[in-house]
Specification:
The complex is a heterotrimer of chains A (406), B (435) and C (236).
Chain A (H helix, E strand, L loop, with lengths): L2 H9 L2 H32 L10 E8 L7 H12 L4 E7 L9 E5 L10 E8 L3 H5 L3 E4 L8 E4 L8 E5 H7 L9 E5 L2 E9 L17 E9 L2 E8 L4 H15 L3 E2 L6 E3 H8 L1 H35 L1 H9 L4 H38 L6 H27 L11
Chain B lengths: L1 H14 L1 H29 L10 E6 L18 H10 L4 E8 L2 E3 L8 E2 L2 E4 L3 H4 L4 E4 L4 H5 L4 E5 H8 L8 E4 L2 E9 L11 H4 L8 E4 H6 L18 H6 L6 E5 L3 H20 L9 E5 H7 L5 H30 L2 H9 L4 H37 L2 H4 L6 H28 L2 H5 L3
Parallel strand pairs in B: 5-10, 7-9
Antiparallel strand pairs in B: 1-11, 1-12, 2-5, 2-11, 3-4, 3-8, 6-9, 7-10, 8-9
Chain C lengths: L1 E11 L4 E12 L4 E5 L6 H8 L7 E6 L2 E2 L5 H11 E4 L11 H10 L5 H15 L14 H14 L4 E5 L7 H16 L3 E5 L3 H5 L3 E6 L2 E4 L16
Parallel strand pairs in C: 3-8, 3-9, 6-7, 7-8
Antiparallel strand pairs in C: 1-2, 1-4, 4-5, 9-10
Helix pairs in contact in C: 3-4, 3-5, 4-5, 5-6
């Protein structure tokens, strides 16, 4: 295949060549970055929380009125919930993974330290918490029934026994053996680590408050009007329990509000809401990619068809001089390949540049080379596929065209 | 001549419907993508209170120290100590201290369930400062603030729910067991972004239905339903909380002139310096007094997603334009013989320019119409891509419609530039030498 | 009317310099019917395109209707083409998208004429060439001779002072060709100046005078008004 004549022919059709190459370059730049964003977001959305999210219902409850203490109300609600048919277990807390709101506090090993401590998410609960969440203990034990304390609003919670996540254990005690050690979250209130769970994530999906899967579970009932209940149902009973909860709770005590949107939710809805923005971004980027590739392909088809039309006589002459159909076909395919090659080279530069710019301005991760490679292959293939039909039509031009004068 | 060229243009477009369709679609999609994401971007970055945004200021001061804050940015809210001290100093035309409270309203009718709505504890100046529109009655007075009066302002939706939308000024409202007298009913008011409470809402929220005096809320120890950040333990109890360095209050001031703003800034610096001298702060004053738009910018209220998608869409539009340039080039140059004839018959280059630019313009109009329809669809579908509070704001209003059409036409004219230039360069002689 | 003195046209590529016309001299008076003849590649078509201001020239002078044209800008040249010159091409060069009426209308549109006047002139021109009944037809629906006549109507509609024809019968059969030539002679009789390029000696004979072009230069045969036929030699 003689490349030189093709190149010199292209030099005389600079405009069309530049346009196709430019389109391929720009499309590559955008598609690479867009697909990378999709991949990132999909990864994010698929992150596990460490708990068993099936058959789990989350309740956001506001007690109405201003009694001395809400503790008896909470205890009675727990009883109501635990005795509903189809319910395996339930507990009351301030927050849970994917809730997008909660408490964070610093964990120290040194009681008198002036420093910040490791920022950790704080979950309240009781001895039913682990079972309801469906998390696995890898060391130590669960809380005992008696260890759960009621803490008033104005007090600083600092329970004597806590359960932490393995990630936190490794962070605070890098040489292992976190079990049995003492840490401090509130002044003058030492907490002994009595159990370590395998994994549990913080309520936030971005790392704004907490730098990793650092979680402390405290056996505390926090005496305030706003509470979250988590209810685990038996498999297959989720729907029935979901419907039964509001009447059961309101029946027990009307002085409460279960807000419309966030009152009673299946955990899959909690997950969906938490990752709304990421899911949306992934969808948007995918659609943009798809449409962009389609438009670029259509443009290449259009422009190539035009060129073939312009060069009918030339093709006829070649055929008259002995070129076979396959020679004409491969001529056009090669020509397109060369143009596309220039396009992808420029495109790679643009893609990396765009990625770098987004990294500086929007703190997005930098493009991985795998994606660049995928993009290059995809666009070369797209170009070839798009030019195939016009090239085929070119190969069908009859040698008699050589003699036509107009 | 314009209508002549228009006729010619339309005729030419009809001749090759596939090519025309391709170009119209390219422009339509490109414009639609850009306009849809722009509508979201515009909604999230607009001035929520344009008539006053340069007169309203948020106050920040660093009460944690430079090693506890990031990049020299003071905490986003104030402590109780500082907020109330600055309020008492009366250094601005109007001021208010605000925090969100989590309260439930208990209806009179015992068969109705209690409702929880967004609620704020704030000052009497809140309503005139922010031009909050009233349907009935008025806000409460500064005197009511002084007296810690048990009054409340509610919004239309709540009024509809509880009182069937009737006259409710003077009626009593039971909030968590305490009675408050309604002084006024406002429209459902939620400027987007919710500039006065960005630290707690992220900027896009439905707004509150209940407003009570700050002084009364503190009396009743109504807990803060917003963000609470403390660098050291506040100690136990409400009083310790009020004395602590925990930040949870927003202080907004109305300073109509630049001079007043400057003197207010000086006062705040002076106040922080005082605290340093008194030993409370062991660092130099670090204060910020920012107007609405600056504050929104610093807090990055415009979601990253909406910026990124706007940029990607614009890139998409550029690619569609490049595509259109190629297709127009093909379309125009295919008619080189016709151009040659017209030139021979007396058309000047300008005439050729006019003819083909107008033809490109008609593609722009068609692309614009398609783009408009797709933008409408896009805005309906925005909820699939952006979170609800932001998606709600994207709207197809007359300005956006006009902008869509203009962008489409301008884009197609820009794309037509090079192809038209090539067309005008066609030498009449080349085309007519048939031997 | 049309006067060229020492006109030259050079085509330069990177490697080669080609003189399409060199020291070309011609003087066509108003009302003349001149045929420009010569072999292929002699430059007669180049002469015509320069005469019609379709191309620029590299040397010499060209006065059209008293005006020296080399200093004119594109707008001025376009206007002269539009108002003073009528073209008839070998390949008809009708615009396929437009019907007969619209094709004839094209030059009138560039003159900024009002619709009523345009219509009048178009119908008159079509009458002249005998195609008024086909005004709504498209070029594809007409025979070669009819298309050429439409092209002539187009050339005439603007009442040009000078008609330039390039092999006007080249693509027509004998009968159609005869019809076209008769039309041209009629137009000449009515006072038009016609310069016709042809390589057909029979056609050239019907003109008033012939100008012969070889290798870009004029070999003036104006003293011989008629082409000699070979004397009949009787063989006994």
């Amino acid at each position: 295949m003689q490349i030189k004549p093709i190149l010199s022919a292209l030099r005389r059709h600079k405009a069309g060549t530049i346009l196709i190459a430019l389109q391929i370059a720009l499309t590559l730049a955008i598609v690479c970055n867009a697909l990378f964003i999709v991949h990132e977001r999909v990864d994010k959305v698929n992150r596990t929380t460490g708990m068993d999210e099936r058959n789990l219902i989350a309740i956001g409850n506001d007690y109405v009125g201003a009694p001395e203490t809400f503790a008896p109300l909470m205890k009675s609600d727990l009883q109501t919930l635990r005795s509903l048919p189809g319910v395996v277990d339930a507990y009351v807390t301030n927050a849970y993974p994917l809730r997008q709101g909660g408490w964070s506090t610093g964990v120290q090993t040194d009681p008198d330290s002036k420093k910040e401590g490791i920022s950790t998410a704080l979950y309240f609960g009781d001895d039913h918490a682990l079972k309801t969440l469906g998390v696995r203990l890898v060391a130590g034990r669960n809380f005992n029934a008696g260890e759960t304390q009621v803490v008033k609003r104005e007090q600083q919670p600092g329970a004597p026994q806590i359960i932490i996540t393995k990630a936190l254990a490794d962070k605070v005690f890098p040489d292992g053996n976190a079990l049995g050690k003492v840490v401090y979250m509130a002044k003058g209130k030492p907490s002994t680590i009595i159990g370590i769970v395998e994994k549990l994530t913080s309520p936030w999906i971005e790392n704004n408050y907490v730098d990793g899967d650092y979680v402390v579970i405290m056996p505390v009932i926090f005496d305030s009007s706003f509470q979250n209940f988590l209810v685990r149902t038996q498999p297959g009973q989720e729907d029935a329990v979901f419907k039964a909860i509001p009447p059961a709770l309101y029946g027990a005590n009307r002085m409460r509000v279960l807000p419309e949107k966030l009152g009673v939710r299946r955990f899959e809805d909690v997950r969906a809401r938490a990752y709304e923005a990421d899911r949306g971004m992934a969808i948007l980027m995918s659609v943009v990619c798809g449409v962009l590739l389609a438009i670029t392909a259509a443009g290449i088809v259009g422009l190539s068809s035009f060129w073939v039309g312009q060069r009918r006589k030339q093709i006829g002459v070649r055929r008259a001089l002995g070129a076979r159909r396959s020679d004409i076909l491969s001529y056009f395919m090669t020509e397109n390949f060369l143009i596309a090659l220039v396009g992808v080279i420029v495109g790679v530069v643009l893609a990396v540049g765009l990625s770098q710019w987004m990294f500086t301005h929007f703190e997005m991760k930098r493009l991985s080379l795998t994606y660049v490679a995928i993009g290059v292959v995809a666009l070369l293939a797209l170009g070839q596929a798009a030019v195939f039909a016009p090239a085929l039509r070119a190969s069908r031009v009859s040698p008699v065209e050589a003699t036509r004068s107009v | 001549m314009f209508s002549y060229y228009l006729q010619l243009g339309l005729r030419s477009l009809r001749r090759n419907p596939v090519l025309t369709g391709l170009m119209v679609m390219a422009i339509g999609f490109g414009v639609a993508a850009s306009m849809t994401t722009y509508s979201v971007f515009r909604a999230t970055s607009q001035d929520p209170i344009p008539q006053k945004s340069s007169q309203l200021y948020n106050t920040q001061l660093d009460n944690w120290g430079p090693d506890k804050i990031e990049k020299g940015e003071p905490p986003p809210a104030l402590t109780y100590k500082d907020a109330t001290a600055l309020l008492r100093a009366h250094k601005a035309k109007r001021q208010t201290v605000t925090y969100p409270i989590g309260v439930s309203v208990i209806p009179d009718n015992p068969s109705r369930l209690p409702v929880r709505e967004g609620a704020y504890a704030t000052g009497a100046d809140f309503f005139p400062m922010f031009d909050v529109p009233f349907l009935q009655g008025t806000g409460w007075t500064l005197d009511d603030d002084e007296k810690h009066a048990s009054v409340v302002v509610i919004a239309k939706s709540l009024n509809d729910k509880l009182f069937d939308g009737g006259q409710s000024v003077g009626k009593q409202l039971n909030i968590d067991g305490h009675l408050y007298r309604i002084t006024g009913v406002i429209k459902d008011w939620a400027p987007q972004p919710l500039f006065f409470d960005v630290p707690n809402t992220g900027g896009f929220d439905e707004g509150a239905q209940v407003y009570v005096p700050f002084t009364r809320a503190v009396d009743l120890k109504l807990p803060n339903a917003g963000n609470n950040s403390c660098v050291e333990e506040p100690g136990e109890g409400w009083d310790n909380y009020l004395r602590s360095e925990c930040i949870w209050l927003s202080l907004w001031s109305e300073l109509p002139s630049k001079a007043e703003a400057d003197s207010y800034r000086q006062y705040i610096e002076g106040y922080a310096a005082e605290q340093q001298h008194a030993g409370r702060f062991r660092w130099a004053p670090n204060t910020k007094v920012r107007d609405v738009m600056t504050w929104l910018d610093v807090r990055h209220v415009v979601p990253k997603e909406s910026q990124v998608s706007l940029i990607v869409s614009l890139g998409f539009l550029v690619i569609c334009l490049v595509n259109t340039v190629g297709l127009l080039l093909a379309k125009f140059m295919r008619r080189a013989p016709e151009i040659g004839v017209r030139r021979a018959l007396g058309a000047s280059r300008k005439d050729i320019y006019a003819q083909f630019l107008i033809e490109a313009g008609t593609i722009g109009v068609a692309g614009g119409v398609l783009g408009l329809i797709l933008t409408g669809v896009g805005i309906l579908g925005v909820g699939l891509v952006f979170p609800e509070p932001v998606a709600r704001l994207a709207r197809l209003d007359p300005v956006l419609i006009l902008l869509t059409l203009i962008v489409a036409i301008v884009a197609s004219l820009i794309a037509a530039f090079y192809p038209t230039w090539r067309a005008a360069q066609v030498q009449p002689a080349w085309q007519l030498k048939s031997n | 009317m049309l006067k060229m003195t020492h006109l030259a046209k050079v085509y330069r590529t990177e490697v080669v310099e080609t003189y399409a016309l060199r020291d070309f001299n011609i003087d066509v008076k108003e009302g003349e019917f001149v045929a420009v003849t010569g072999p292929s590649g002699s430059g007669k078509t180049t002469f015509l395109t320069i005469a019609g201001l379709l191309e620029t020239f590299t040397g010499g002078q060209y006065h059209l209707d008293g005006v020296e044209v080399s200093q004119l800008d594109d707008n001025a040249r376009s206007r002269i083409r539009n108002e003073k010159i009528g073209f008839i091409f070998q390949a008809f060069n009708l615009i396929p998208d437009l019907n007969v009426f619209d094709n004839v209308e094209v030059p009138l549109r560039y003159r900024g004429m009002k619709a009523a006047e345009r219509k009048q002139r178009i119908m008159d021109a079509l009458e002249r060439v005998g195609l008024a009944s086909r005004a709504k037809h498209y070029p594809a629906e007409l025979s070669g001779g009819q298309q050429q006549r439409v092209a002539i109507a187009r050339a005439l509609a603007g009442s040009p002072r000078l008609l330039l024809a390039d092999e006007p019968t080249g693509n027509l059969d004998t009968q159609m060709a005869r019809g076209v030539m008769e039309l041209l002679e009629e137009i000449h009789r009515e006072g038009a100046t016609i310069v016709m390029v042809t390589h057909d000696p029979e056609l050239a004979a019907r003109a008033q005078r012939n100008v012969h072009v070889i290798d870009g230069q004029v070999v003036d045969l104006s003293e011989e008004p008629r082409f000699h036929t070979q004397p009949h030699v009787a063989l006994s």
